[in-house]
Amino acid sequence: MTSLDKPTGDTEAEADDARAVTEAALFEAFGGVRGMIETVLPGLLFVTIYTINNDLHLSAIAALGVSLVLVVVRLAMKDTVKHAFSGVFGVAFGVVFAMMTDNAKNFYLPGMLYTLGLGLAYIVTTLAGVPLIGLILGPIFKENLSWRTRNPGRKKAYAKASWAWGLILLAKCAILFPLYWWADTEQLGWVLVTLKIPPFLLAVWLTWVFLAKAPAPIDVFAEMEAAEKAEQEKAERETAERRLADGEAADSQGGRHRKV
């Protein structure tokens, strides 16, 4: 191996590590395959049952029921329930809204409004200099908000990713809201279910691309632990020095007493 080979290998290894860390963080943040299933299944069940028999109450109860089952399964497996719980709340809002208005199409409206608000949040926070994806992923990467002032390359990557999320979600809304007014419940439901996964995967993939090329995150938790350890070691050294000084002073005083 030449002297030029080793740095190249180290660089490739570091890049592989960065990609692995990024993949793990994205998996944790967005729930992975299981999270996608929990997101799609209630809406898919609702539109399937409603397409078959046009029964709003049965469709709504089935969608809410499967959401609760997913939470129970998570709890039984002692797994994180944040994705399943968010699904339950989303389905519950849809069910309540559809029942109150007696309009099955309104089952989808709260989720559509949430998507619109989220898309705007990604754009607005990026324009404000605090891209939302950085606020979401920062704690997972153990960097918190250090990327804002100490890691400009990473802030730029978060900004690009947030732009991607915002524009993708707004493009999705541009398709769904006209359908809400013009299409029937079945058409809207099937289009919405179809658009659940592909835009999400595109946004996650773009986020991975941007962050895999960005500088490594600054582990502020490790920095705080190191600072606490250094402070503790300093205190221990000062204590030991004081004890040594006190011991030497005592020995000196004892020597004077013996001479007297």
UniProtKB/TrEMBL annotation:
Signal peptide: none
Keywords: Membrane, Transmembrane, Transmembrane helix
Domain of life: Bacteria
Region (Disordered): 231-260
Parts of the chain that traverse the membrane: 56-77, 84-100, 120-141, 162-182, 188-211
UniProt-listed InterPro entries: UCP010219
Biased composition range(s): Basic and acidic residues: 231-246
Name this protein carries in UniProt: DUF3159 domain-containing protein
Record's keyword annotation contains Plastid: no
